[in-house]
Amino acid sequence: MIAIIDYDAGNIKSVEKALLYLGEDVCISRDAKEILSADKVILPGVGAFGDAMGNIRRFGLESVIKEVTERGTPFLGICLGLQLLFERSEETPGVEGLGILKGEILRIPDKEGLKIPHMGWNSLELTNSGRLFKGLEGNPYVYFVHSYYLKAEDKKIVKAVTDYSTRIHASVEKDNVFACQFHPEKSSSVGLQILKNFVRLQEG
């Protein structure tokens, strides 16, 4: 069973639909017992960092997420879900993130000819042999929608980068914790392969 954490941050149904297409059992939940008993857990999300952290705390999910990641259960953050795993964001100064991974979320710098938010397809440069990208070669294209980007403290956890006004850490992996700034569920066959790689992971 794959649990998708519901904290009122949108984008849940498209993730569920992609997983059902892959033939997976999925539950959408904010119930601690259900989430902790899942084989894999996904934290999707679109929206503002501060509002999302407020909801996670209001629903009592912060300790649940930390317990899941500490247990070694494979965990995937998507888009805002990636950002929340880190310590802080320029979008909402003073609000602490989950702090499971070290780094900060910065606003994409303005650049002539580029629109913010960054919306659309960008190619990835794959680095450090990420397990999510097994079977993908070259520079696969994936779909992004974001105004803020990750700058991870430890470059070794970065498994994919892209360039849009600046160098963006597009995917990270540390032990059982995985995250993508882009939307695999909206990234056609490449995205489905990434999700398939995630659901096939063994617990560690």
Distinctive features:
Rossmann fold, alpha/beta
Give average pLDDT, whole number: 96
Provide the CATH architecture. Answer: 3-Layer(aba) Sandwich
- From the N-terminal CA to the C-terminal CA, the straight-line distance is 16 Å
What is the CATH superfamily classification? Class I glutamine amidotransferase (GATase) domain
Sheet of most strands: 8 strands, mixed
What would you note in describing this structure?
This protein has helices at residues 12-21, 32-36, 49-58, 62-71, 80-84, 188-199, and strands at residues 2-5, 26-29, 40-43, 75-78, 88-89, 103-107, 118-123, 125-126, 141-146, 148-152, 158-164, 166-174, 177-180. It is an alpha/beta fold and 204 residues long. The chain has one domain: Class I glutamine amidotransferase (GATase) domain (Rossmann fold). An eight-stranded mixed beta sheet has the order 2-1-3-4-13-12-11-8. A three-stranded mixed beta sheet has the order 5-6-10. The model has no long low-confidence stretch (mean pLDDT 96).
Structure, briefly:
By secondary structure, the chain is an alpha/beta fold.
Task: Please specify the SSE layout and strand pairing.
Elements: E1 2-5, H1 12-21, E2 26-29, H2 32-36, E3 40-43, H3 49-58, H4 62-71, E4 75-78, H5 80-84, E5 88-89, E6 103-107, E7 118-123, E8 125-126, E9 141-146, E10 148-152, E11 158-164, E12 166-174, E13 177-180, H6 188-199
Parallel strand pairs: 1-2, 1-3, 3-4, 4-13, 5-6
Antiparallel strand pairs: 6-10, 7-9, 8-11, 11-12, 12-13
